């Protein structure tokens, strides 16, 4: 049976309790998971700049070609910094971090803005202190090793990660998780309600009779409750002891 669009609201209203329960339970469960069971993740960042000036008559200066070259090198450096050539030395020089190359590679990310010489190195960890210590170590090793790899010393650390830079965990986003759970559960519950109504082929209205059987409705008998019959029944006169009873007979 095809459901007309105007019936949707009636169907949803009829099973609104089911929708409310599904949405409420899903939102509460997501909130509990986000606040109590998912470990927070912190991120620490450092910024480095790729900057090598040109030299003319013993004096260094920065021209367009130098800036362009440095900008192109940023993409190369973004890949180099995540290779074992850098990460191996970080693990070797800072054993107190307790990391392997594989662990470190999974924690690090490098980004840059288009056509700029600045790179941002990010490390994620369950502890901000650990993330800050690790990202500072990676930046320092990269700065010291890159001259031997590229034969040019053009990396400068702009800023290191500091304890006061901690702005709280970057994940999970608890409020966003709850909002997503609310919206998704609402859509799913409405879909289930409409599906249940679509699969229900029982006859409920006179329109269903016309649609299924092709017969017109002649009359509609309303449901009669026992209480209604009791209220409408003629009441018998109450008699008391000693009342006279009269009887008549037809001759």
Structure, briefly:
Helices cover 51% and strands 13% of the residues. By secondary structure, the chain is α+β, with helices and mostly antiparallel strands.
Question: Care to describe what's here?
Answer:
The protein has 251 residues and is α+β, with helices and mostly antiparallel strands. The chain contains 9 helices and 6 strands. The strands form 2 sheets. It has a 4-stranded antiparallel sheet. α4 packs across α6. It is elongated.
Taken from the alpha-carbon principal axes, the silhouette is elongated
Mean pLDDT: 82
Per CATH, the class of the largest domain reads Alpha Beta
Unreliable stretches covering 5 or more consecutive residues: 54-59
User: Number of folding domains?
Assistant: 2
Question: What order do the SSEs take from the amino end to the carboxyl end, as H and E?
Answer: HHEEEHHHEEHEHHH
Number of helices: 9
Largest sheet: 4 strands, antiparallel
Distance between the termini: 69 Å
Tags for this model:
two-stranded antiparallel sheet, 2 domains, 13% strand, Alpha-Beta Plaits, alpha+beta, 4-stranded antiparallel β-sheet, elongated, 251 residues, 6 strands, 9 helices
Task: Please render the helix and strand layout as text.
Elements: H1 8-14, H2 16-37, E1 42-50, E2 54-56, E3 59-61, H3 64-80, H4 84-93, H5 101-107, E4 108-112, E5 118-125, H6 128-150, E6 155-159, H7 174-199, H8 206-213, H9 226-232
Antiparallel strand pairs: 1-5, 1-6, 2-3, 4-5
């Amino acid at each position: 049976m095809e459901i007309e669009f105007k019936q949707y609201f009636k169907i949803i209203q009829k099973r609104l309790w089911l929708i409310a329960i599904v949405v409420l339970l899903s939102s509460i469960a997501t909130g509990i998971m986000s606040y109590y069971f998912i470990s927070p993740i912190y991120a620490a960042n450092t910024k480095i700049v790729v900057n090598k000036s040109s030299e003319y008559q013993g004096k260094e200066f920065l021209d367009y070609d130098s800036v362009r070259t440095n900008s192109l090198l940023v993409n190369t450096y973004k890949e180099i910094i995540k290779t074992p050539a850098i990460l191996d030395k970080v693990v070797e020089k800072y054993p107190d971090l307790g990391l392997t190359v594989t662990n470190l590679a999974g924690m690090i990310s490098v980004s840059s803005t288009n056509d700029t010489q600045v790179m941002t190195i990010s490390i994620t960890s369950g502890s901000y202190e650990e993330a800050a210590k690790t990202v500072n170590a990676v930046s320092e090793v990269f700065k010291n090793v890159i001259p031997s790899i590229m034969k040019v010393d053009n990396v400068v650390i702009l800023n290191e990660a500091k304890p006061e830079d901690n702005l709280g965990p970057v994940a999970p986003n608890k409020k966003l998780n709850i909002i997503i759970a609310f919206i998704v559960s609402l859509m799913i519950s409405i879909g289930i309600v409409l599906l249940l109504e679509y699969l229900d082929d029982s006859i409920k209205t006179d329109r269903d009779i016309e649609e299924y059987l092709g017969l017109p409705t002649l009359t509609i008998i309303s449901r009669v409750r026992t209480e209604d019959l009791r209220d409408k029944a003629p009441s018998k006169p109450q008699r008391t002891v000693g009342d006279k009873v009269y009887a008549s007979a037809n001759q």
